[in-house]
């Protein structure tokens, strides 16, 4: 037996290193982790201070919030009540929440909590250029100064209101005084009776302010050029079949209805916009539903006026504009003369053409309403003002006449008429 056979084999400890590659098909946990596992390598490496760290972190941590397809905004507004009439309460609810009285103390601002601090404390970078002693923190040296401080700190007394000025008769006198200042020749100077009220006394300052008006802020820098009394035009306001005063409607075209862009087409002054009788089926259903809600609760619901379609007409010739205007002028003595219709034929300049008996209008196109605002309950909330300067005898005197607007519609072309 050799020596090597007599000694046992020496054993060596060696770790077995195995690298297993596999795909982790497990889904992420349902709840996001509370903290991010960021390896702490310190600031010396520059990993956390570099600009790319935040970008890499954004890529490695995907957004685990799944937003809806419309990103919180209603793309399809059809079906939302009142959204096309300007009522956004369905998609933008009011934030006016009534706070219970027992919870109002919890909403006090932070400045009102704790001990009050003096607002005149000396701050090095905010203090005034004067000495701090000029703020009168010291005690007064004499009694007169102390009494002056007491008077300054005393609460101001409310001005005594004359009870007579709050009476209905005195209020009416103040209103009449405004008309007496504007029209002194028509002022009533007799005693008060059942039909006449004498206006309040007009001061010299009020007469001077009316005779020489001045701008409240710019003073004499601007000068009054002219003034107009604000008056209603009762003869022009339309009336219903029952004789009740009605209101006007304004229409705004989204594009030029005549196609001319270089000059104004005077045919627009006598154009005709006639409402079509038929309404779409869906429009009639909406009108019935909205008006039924108005009849049940007129306070929280408005009367609905359907979005109608209109046919637009223009005179075939610009020469007929003057004749149409004279035909509708009630003060024109020749408004019923057939010569206003003009003549037809090639010899119009010589007066040999055939006389016409009507004004010819062309059917231009059909317009549909895409936006409108209706206020039948208070038509004087929106008014149109027209300045009138009569150069000769006219039914209207000089003034700014206002006309009630109950309907404002924006219309656009639906389709050209062949």
Automatic annotation (TrEMBL):
One of its GO terms (biological process) is transcription elongation by RNA polymerase II. Keywords: Nucleus. One of its GO terms (molecular function) is chromatin binding. Its main location: nucleus. InterPro entries: RNA_pol_II-assoc_Paf1 (IPR007133). It comes from the Eukaryota. Pfam families: Paf1. It is found in: Nucleus. One of its GO terms (cellular component) is Cdc73/Paf1 complex. The keyword Nucleus applies. Residues 138-162 are annotated as: Disordered. Belongs to the PAF1 family. PANTHER family: RNA POLYMERASE II-ASSOCIATED FACTOR 1 HOMOLOG. This is Paf1-domain-containing protein. It comes from Rhizodiscina lignyota.
């Amino acid at each position: 037996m050799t020596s090597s056979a007599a000694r046992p084999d020496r054993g060596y400890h060696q770790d077995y290193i195995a690298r297993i590659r596999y795909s982790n098909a497990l889904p992420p946990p349902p709840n996001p982790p509370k903290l991010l596992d960021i390896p702490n390598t310190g600031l010396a490496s520059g990993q956390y201070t570099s600009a790319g760290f935040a970008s890499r972190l954004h890529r490695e941590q995907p957004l685990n919030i799944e937003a809806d397809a419309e990103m919180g905004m209603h793309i399809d507004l059809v079906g939302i009540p009142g959204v096309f009439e300007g009522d956004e309460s369905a998609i933008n609810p009011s934030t006016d929440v009534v706070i219970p009285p027992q919870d109002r103390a919890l909403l006090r601002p932070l400045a009102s909590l704790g001990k009050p601090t003096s607002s005149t404390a000396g701050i090095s970078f905010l203090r005034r250029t004067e000495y701090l002693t000029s703020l009168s923190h010291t005690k007064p040296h004499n009694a007169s100064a102390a009494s002056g401080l007491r008077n300054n700190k005393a609460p101001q007394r409310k001005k005594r209101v004359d009870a007579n000025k709050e009476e209905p008769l005195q209020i009416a006198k103040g209103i009449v005084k405004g008309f007496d200042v504007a029209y002194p020749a028509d002022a009533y100077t007799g005693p008060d009776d059942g039909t006449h009220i004498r206006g309040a006394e007009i001061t010299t300052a009020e007469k001077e302010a009316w005779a020489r008006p001045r701008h409240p802020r710019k003073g004499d820098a601007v000068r009054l050029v002219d003034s107009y009394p604000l008056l209603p035009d009762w003869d022009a306001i339309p009336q219903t079949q029952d004789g009740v005063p009605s209101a006007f409607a304004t229409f705004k075209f989204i594009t030029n209805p005549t196609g001319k862009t270089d000059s104004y087409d005077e045919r627009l002054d006598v154009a005709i916009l006639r409402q079509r009788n038929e309404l779409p089926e869906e429009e009639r259903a909406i009108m019935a539903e909205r008006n039924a809600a108005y009849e049940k609760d007129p306070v929280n619901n408005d009367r609905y006026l359907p979005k109608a379609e209109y046919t637009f007409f223009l005179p075939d010739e610009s020469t007929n504009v003057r004749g149409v205007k004279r035909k509708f002028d009630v003060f024109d003595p020749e408004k019923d003369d057939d010569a206003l219709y003009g003549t037809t034929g090639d010899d119009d300049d010589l007066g040999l053409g055939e006389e016409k008996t009507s004004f010819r209008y062309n059917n231009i196109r059909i317009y549909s309403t895409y936006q409108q605002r209706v206020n039948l309950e208070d038509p004087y909330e929106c008014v149109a003002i027209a300045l009138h300067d009569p150069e000769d005898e006219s039914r209207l005197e000089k003034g700014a006449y206002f006309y009630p607007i109950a309907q404002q519609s924006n219309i656009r072309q639906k389709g050209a008429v062949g």
